[in-house]
Amino acid sequence: MIVERTPNEILLKISPNIDKFAMERLLEYIEYLEMTSDVKGKQGDADKLADELNATWWAKNRDKFIKCKLL
Q: Residue 27 phi/psi, 5° resolution?
């Protein structure tokens, strides 16, 4: 693997023999890093928001998943 850094980009030269699934995972991770590079939020805040969204979603959708009725 060869890594070249320029002022505007980073170039990776990788063997074509690399597993396609592994390459896709790597590219997704790099995309994630790129998208979150200037995020100022804290992980705890993100976790709290995710918990709130999950609770709200579950409250609205639980009847679609739980079909049995208690006697």
A: -65, -40
